[in-house]
Amino acid sequence: MAEIKEIRKTEREKASIHSHITGLGLDEKGKPKFKADGMVGQLEAREAAGIVVQLIKQGKMAGRGILFVGPSGTGKTALAVAIARELGEDTPFNMINAAEIYSTELKKTEVLTQAIRKSIGVRIREKRLVYEGGVKDIKIKVARSRMNPYVQVPREAELTLVTKDDSMTLRVGEEIAEQLMRLPVRKGDLIWIDANTGEVVKEGKAKGIEGAKTYDIETVRYLDLPTGPVKKEKEITFTVTLHDLDLNAAARNISITALFSLFTEREINQDIRKEVDNLVKDMINRGNAELVPGVLFIDDAHMLDIEAFSFLTRALESDLSPILILASNRGITKIRGTDIESPHGIPLDLLDRLLIIPTRPYNAEEIKEIIKIRANEMDIIIDNDALDYLTKLGVESSLRYAVELLEPAQIIAQRNGRNTITTEDIKEASTLFSDTKRSVKYVKEYENLLLK
Ligand SMILES: Nc1ncnc2c1ncn2[C@@H]1O[C@H](COP(=O)(O)OP(=O)(O)OP(=O)(O)O)[C@@H](O)[C@H]1O
Ligand SMILES: [Mg+2]
Questions:
Q1: Secondary-structure percent of the chain, ordered helix, strand, coil, rounded to 5
Q2: Is the pLDDT of residue 2 over 80?
Q3: pLDDT per residue over 13-54, tens digit each?
Q4: Which of 98, 232, 250, 387 has its CA 20 to 30 A from that of 377?
Q5: Distance between CA 448 and CA 452 in Å, rounded?
Q6: Mean pLDDT of all residues belonging to the chain
Q7: Is the pTM of this model over 0.85?
Q8: 197 pLDDT tier (thresholds 50, 70, 90)
Q9: Which candidate, 384, 444, 357, places its Cα nearest to that of 82?
Q10: Which residues pair with 130 in a beta bridge?
Q11: From CA 165, how far away is CA 225, in angstroms rounded?
Q12: Residues with C-beta atoms within 5 A of ion ligand 2
């Protein structure tokens, strides 16, 4: 499987409104602490989510699903993000909103198939011939670009790699020099270069190389210098998703012009998927790979329609199935595409396969803590009275509304020459920006006038 040269990280959700969440905040016994890892309250749901994480890690969840149910703003999406953080880098976690399946470019089943394949990882083990060591010296030669004489591009590089027992100076060409410049690789880094493909991987900083500078903007991992020779066989493992492999295989059978549309929206040929599946099965049989069932999280699941639901129900039953996590804030509602009413708009046969975790509305204390965490996350300073006032708004309107007011209030405070948000700033922000109850009342009042 030497063809997979590109290591693509599985796509992860970057949604900044949940950026404060680093885990489920559980103790060693799996019991939730009131406030930990950016999570507050919602204790039963967090404990249940912790059990789900354990089941996933033990491989006991494949082909089964979870449904988070609760009112808006009660942390359903937050819990899903926390589960992703607990699972770690190596388990694919793919998050979509149900509305995304109604794309104009692709069939619903294609969107879902891609989503499913992005949620199944393949951990691949490979032996590679590499040069590995700490960078003792590095010189990159630049020259004017042939395309644009005003731009300097790397031409070649010379670097010395050291281990505890060995030292080796390498002269490398343009492609590797370009990677060395881009990463960037500096004196003191611990790196390896694939002897066949030229891929350069930066592992961290090597301990004990003299004269190496540290740059404090970087998050640094300090590693011991390796022992033995610089040039050696190294076993590396990495996880890609089935979808990554599909794209990789598709790219090999494709013209340059088609390549441009490849990474946007494009249907992948079923034959290519079969080819990839066979390849993966082969690697597994040879002991060079294993499957890592990841999580497919579908937010606002009541937006899925009957076709999507039956597709997912079938998918859960196949060998290559991810763990399905759904979330919904609806009660009894019509299953989209039918006249049938069902709990959360989800067909009963699928509901039967799901473990349901309810989330409850927050009390004042919890709302206050969540606002504090969010303010801290956004580097916003708020005084105690203002925090109490915002908490009150959160109780009366919604947690979301209270959190949404933080940034406008900060701007108002700054305009008044202050760094700290006071009650006045919150009051002003809440008159400028309405909550839902008020906006509905407003439109009702004016409806009569407007429509006459
Ligand atoms: N228990 C919690 N601890 C910390 N932050 C939380 C918690 N619950 C919710 N939040 C934060 O509050 C905000 C609203 O929560 P979230 O988006 O998860 O609600 P939701 O249940 O998914 O709502 P909806 O049904 O509208 O999608 C987010 O910024 C989220 O990160
Ligand atoms: Mg949500």
A1: 40, 25, 35
A2: no
A3: 334 778 888 899 999 999 999 999 999 999 999 999 999 999
A4: 98
A5: 6
A6: 86
A7: no
A8: confident
A9: 357
A10: 194, 232
A11: 9
A12: 76-77
**Residue with CA closest to ligand 1 atom 10:** 75
pLDDT band at 208 (very low <50, low <70, confident <90, very high): confident
Which position has the token pair 């249940």? 48
CA proximity to 253, closest of 234, 266, 240, 241: 266
Percent of the chain residues topping a pLDDT of 90: 54
Which ranges of 88-208 does DSSP label H, i.e. alpha helix?
A: 108-118, 174-182
CA angle 164, 166, 167 (to 5 degrees): 115
154 lines ligand 1 (CB under 6 A): no
Structure token digits, residue 302: 């009541």
Q: For 102-121, write each residue's pLDDT tens digit.
A: 977 788 999 999 999 999 99
**pLDDT tens across 148-169, in order?**
878 888 889 999 999 999 999 9
Task: Please write the tens of the pLDDT for every residue from 268-321.
Answer: 888 888 888 998 999 999 988 988 888 899 999 999 999 999 999 988 888 778
Which of 18, 34, 344, 376 has the most ligand 1 atoms within 8 A of CB, as the residue to mutate? 18
For residue 39, which atom of ligand 1 is closest to its CA? Answer: 3
Lookup: tokens for 152: 């300097």
Two structure tokens written together for 195: 């002897």
In the chain, the domains with their CATH numbers are 16-119+294-358 (3.40.50.300), 125-238 (2.40.50.360), 364-440 (1.10.8.60)
Beta bridge partners of 231: 131
Report how far ligand 2's centroid is from the alpha carbon of 75 (Å): 7
- Amino acid identity of residue 159, one-letter, is L
Distances (CA, A) of 348 to 38, 129, 335, 344, 366: 35, 54, 10, 10, 34
User: Environment class of residue 357 by beta-carbon count within 10 Å: exposed (0-12), middle (13-18) or buried (19+)?
Assistant: buried
Of 172, 136, 169, give the one whose Cα is nearest residue 154.
172
* Contact of 162 with 230, CB cutoff 8 Å: yes
Length of the chain: 452
Exposure letters 328-337 (e unless 16+ CB within 10 A, then b): bbbeeeebee
pLDDT at 264: 55
